[in-house]
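Hey, I'm writing a tutorial for new members on how sequence and structure tokens pair up, and I'd like a real worked example in the thread rather than a made-up one. If someone can provide the structure for the chain below, I'll link this post from the tutorial.
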Amino acid sequence: MSDTQDRHVEQDRQAGARMTGAVIVISAFLFLGKVAGYVKEAMVSDYWGLSGGLDAFKVVYNSVIILVYTKAEKLLRPTYLPIFVQHRDKGREEEAWRFFSTSTNVAFLVMLAITALCTGFAPEIIRVGWPGMDASTAALAVSLLRIAGAAMVLLVMSVMTEMTLHSYKRFTAPALAEAMMRIVLPITIFGLVAAWGMGPSEGRVGVSPQALRAAAIGVLIGAALRLLVQLPALWRKLRMYRVTLNLRNPDVVRMVRLMPPVVVGLLASSARTYFDSRFSVDAGEGIYTALDFARKIADAPILILPLAVALVVFPFVSEWASRENREMFTRALVSMTRVMAFIFVPMAAGLIVLALPAIRFLYMGEGAFTMEDSFVVRRALIPYAAGIPFFAVESSLDKWYFALGDTATPNYVGAAAAGLHVLIAWFGVHVLKRNVGIIALALTASKGIKVILLYAMLRRRLEAIRGSEVASFVVRLACATGVMVVVLILASNALGGMVVDAGRIERAIFLAVCTGVGAVSYLISAALLRIEEVGQVIGFLREKIGRRFGGR
């Protein structure tokens, strides 16, 4: 066996531990960022409730800046990272960095052009994209887009540094950068509001335009920090960067050839996001914000562990695909799926049961967010919560296809699913005259169908998986989750009277008690049913505790 093969065998042996450590680090920083995000949302809901001015900020931030940034990231990650990893894994670092230089320079110029178009034609974009906005709200949205638009360039440049660090299996700096961006946003928003006295005056309903402009400045500062925090971790490697636009580089050509299916998928998902915002604005004032509030609760669990897993696993599966190591490739997929199902199926069920207490804890303080608002948000949260298991595995599942150099299958299936989503949402809003709930249901139904199809189509590329083992796991998981749901309902009914008119502290205690009781009942049931993941968790904790205290 050659030295390279020996090195690969040793790396494969250590892969599980390295991935676990990286997932823990990323999850911790993501959790920190999510806490900062929910602090911001709680303060925003107390200050301004479901108002039209806040809709303007969320349209600009969610449906323009973050939309462009996330779509650029989704275009670059599957087409850039596997090629860079392949060169780095085979010792061709100079080639990898020639590829990085041209890719980064092209991305910078393209994003500069997009930002110029978005800011220069901001009135036309807002008017055409969201014609349901009244004149004052649309004018505010234009102002916010022109202030925060440059954040798109900074965010995409930060993605290039993040992907390159991930290729070297360095995950801490990118995770810290993401957390810093999330933390700086609420600090900047409310720091400027306090310093400049831009909060709503007493007795006035609505959002101060100056306060929302402070929010746009916060977006710009956060994006800059996301890039700057990562640069020191890549500093020694940046000496290989060149100011070049060698579009004939074979790796760049290969990258471009992988892009058309990704572009189709991105256009479809962008259309889905746009139509969601369009239908919600058509449905009435505050519906867009209600959907956003509900989605943030449903996204909280899947934007921590599943995102961490997806980020960490991609460079590993790219290496295994490059070496045609089907055993490790298949084993990793099965392990990922089981762990995600073990965690997120009961989490989805629990959130459905506790939807209203969770909403009232997060958003309902002494401010403008009312009891009626909480029921509106719940109508969106329950369908979103039902889709959590599908959302949790989707981002990781795509990486197995991308590692194989297949950008077509997941993106064409995703485009078809996005079309189904738009059809369901349109029919619900304009024919059935429903609003917030049907738009959320459209996402869960379309994503669920996409994930099921992708698993079915990937099986022929894997080693054999025993169907009886899969069926046994599904049945046992369903039984354990059912027991947990019964216990949660009983506990919430017994304790619900204690928090009818309570404040946030009492609501937090209620949620903590119910969640703890539900989690304990689920783990006991899972252990009695011999679901293997329980033993793995216990074994992991025993090992860590033993190392910590045994060495003292």
